Amino acid sequence: MPTLDFKGKQHIYAHHLTVPYRPIETDESRSCKPPACGGKAGGADDNLIIHGDNLHALKALLPRYANRVKCIYIDPPYNTGNEGWCYNDNVNSSLMQQWLAEHSPVDNEDLERHDKWLCMMWPRLHLLKELLADNGIIFISIDDNEEHHLRMLMDEIFGAENIVANFTWWSKYTLANDSKTVSYQHENILSYAKNLDTCQIGVLPRTAEMDKTYKNPDEDPKGAWKATPLHAKSGRDRDRYSLKFPNGVTWHCPEGRFPRYTQAKLMDLYDDGQLYFGKSGKSQPNKKTYLSEVKDGKTVGSLWTYQDVGSTHQANEELSSIMGKGVFNNPKGTKLIQRVFQTANLSSDDIVLDSFAGSGTTAHAVLALNKEDGGNRKFILIECEDYADTITAERIRRVINGIPKARDASLREGLGGSFTYGTLGKPIEMEGMLTGEALPSYESLAAHLLYIASGVSVGTDALKSKNGDGLFHSADKIDYYLLYQPDLEYLRCNEVMLNLERAQRIHKANRQNGGKAIVYAPGKYIGQRELTGMGITFCQLPHALHER
């Protein structure tokens, strides 16, 4: 398969693996916990708005949300050359740091801005894929500046066989007469499944207009139906035939057309009463397609018009009605994101992620859908800019609590819900733990170690020490122990070491469930050979923090 090469790729290729883990720290003062929720957010499963670098935030989400997110929508910088964005990740490569320093920020005069954009997207897409559920789908808004590069990037990371569609959004209904070339009226939304074989594309709601074509003139007990021709445009001449039915009518395949069914299948349809010969009973037959047998909705098309999903103008008007005019450039509208949700086939308790959250439209759309059908879908937003609180989160606070002057009745009343506002804590790194300068909480460290060891994602609230020996999780006949407190003096004392007495207690517990144990601790007073005989694997902190 052809792959895309770009400057910096060799430095950024495995960068997503070296991004440090930073725990998410809750900011209660910015969280939204309305009285209707009892003054409490939804606990560990609450909606999340995270302010921080989205690369680090995505890594922070892995211990809890890996393989759990059903739908990802992102609207990254389009890299038009006029945006002034900078690549500011702390890449663990001196060569990459030097390259970025020499070619930043991006501007119109920088001929390598496409390379930098690809360096920015590569590690983020890898982490997004890890977060996506096996039946999940990712949608990426983009325009012609990077669409061709993004397509090859997605083919390489997600697999060309997993493309769902390159949707075209007809976003503008007016022409820009001052355009130097042509007036662009569309944007692209590139969509890939994590595994196309296991995902199911949704359908759009059926309309009354669609159902009008189904009638029941012959009072068929199966209900309303519409006539479908027995012939098709394509086929083979040798498959053409005429067939005389028991009622005396002979069906002739029209010239230039080809039968949809074999003669045997056509007779089965006749015997089952699924052919209609007109009011006289002697006309050329059609097959009955019953309303009860068609899809619950209509198939999603690749062209999304502004009449169906809104325009950029309507998106601006929608945001202005909530936040006032001019607070954010080029927001997306909730109708567009709702079409994304329909295509992703969201169920009532799925998780949606937007790591370029902007004005918060994705969260607004989730809450609106929950309000409409009583669902309990959750959103995770990540925004690195300073407006994460004043625009992104503030919009969601307002739609949750209600906007008195809103035209929409549900917005006046408020969509309900809650969210927890978070920031990124200090990285969990070996150097910081050795000096005691950056000691994570017990729960954060346990979640990180569990994910490294097993790929299991568990909320920090469920990872407290369950006994005096540090048991914090059990799964698949493996018990996980962590001897740790965020206290440097404690980490230097004998109490935190894995000794013979503690190892024997762990071994006794293992024999009862027929399993093994992994023990994380700063040190041990017993050899690994003896521990192996007890079914115990020892991992020394902080060295166990490294990816294995």
Overview of the structural elements:
The chain is globular and about 95 Å long. With 548 residues, it is of the alpha/beta class. α3 packs parallel to α5 and α5 (113-131) packs parallel to α6 (147-159). Helix content is 32%, strand content 19%. The protein folds into three domains: 9-78 and 89-174 and 184-199 and 299-424, Vaccinia Virus protein VP39 (Rossmann fold), CATH 3.40.50; 208-293, no CATH class; 430-545, no CATH class. It has a ten-stranded mixed sheet, with helices on both faces. A four-stranded mixed sheet has the order 20-21-22-23, with helices on both faces. It has a three-stranded antiparallel sheet with strand order 8-14-13, with no helix packed on it.
Considering the chains and any ligands shown, give keywords for the structure.
548 residues; Rossmann fold; 3 domains; four-stranded mixed sheet; 19 helices; 32% helix
Helix content: 25-40%
Return the CATH topology of the largest domain.
Rossmann fold
Low-confidence segments, given as residue ranges, are none
Largest sheet composition: 10 strands, mixed
Strand content: 15-25%
Work out the number of β strands: 23
Strand order of the largest sheet: 1-19-2-18-17-3-4-6-5-16
CATH class of the largest domain: Alpha Beta
Number of domains: 3
Assigned CATH superfamily of the largest domain = Vaccinia Virus protein VP39
- What is the assembly state of the chains in this entry? single chain
Tally of individual helices = 19
Shape field: globular
Secondary structure category = alpha/beta
